[in-house]
Design a protein that fits this description.
Layout (H helix, E strand, L loop, with lengths): L1 H8 L10 E2 L2 E4 L3 E3 L2 E9 L4 E8 L4 E8 L2 E10 L2 H20 L6 H4 L7 H4 L4 E2 L2 E5 L5 E2 L4 E9 L4 E8 L4 E8 L2 E10 L2 H26 L6
Antiparallel strand pairs: 1-2, 2-4, 3-4, 4-5, 5-6, 6-7, 8-9, 9-11, 10-11, 11-12, 12-13, 13-14
Length: 226
Amino acid sequence: MKTIIEQVEAWPFLDTLPPECAGFALDRELAESGTQYLMFSYRKPQDHRSFAVLYDHATKDFMGRITVGLTEYFDVTFISTDLAGLEKILAERLPRTLDRLAGDEGYESIFRAKKILEWDYGRQLPRELAGFTLFISPERPIPTINGSYIILDYSDFSEESNLILYYNVYRDEFFGEIRFRRTPEMAGQFDAKDLPELAGKVSDNLQGTLEALRGRLNEAGRGEDR
């Protein structure tokens, strides 16, 4: 790891990074944590979003990590085994990735064909339910990995818990996921193939699912008491 840290600290590309991109602020803090070494990140804390570039000593790879609310994943398109390859990838992909993360990048045609952006039902969703706030709405979905888009996210960040609804372009289906203090659980009550079916599932299950999640959190104790 020492050799990698020395290479990164002497890497001229870091000095070419813009201080701001797509509303994200550059943070050049270099930090080591376990087998990973954080090289830099672009953050938008008010929107709970960030993009970080790091080196993982365990895999010997440079990687890009995306955070949207309580969702975190590694974008495989940023994996590289050396700084030269990483620099090329960043030059080509970083601005567009931040645009997409900000919700300002156009959506692929197969996603647009589902008419999620025009979904009237999605515009009528309550901004708050059972103490969970509507963080992502169908009007501004966020692409993630493996062809999935987050189209709905009700979050309680203080409890690190949420309900997410996804649409996957490859499987052409909607599905749900709950995070109970960051532990993921499937929410099969939201499985649907089209928007009318999804609207029915949301009408029948949204409030009850969030109230049940709130009840579990209350029973387990508030986050500050853990």
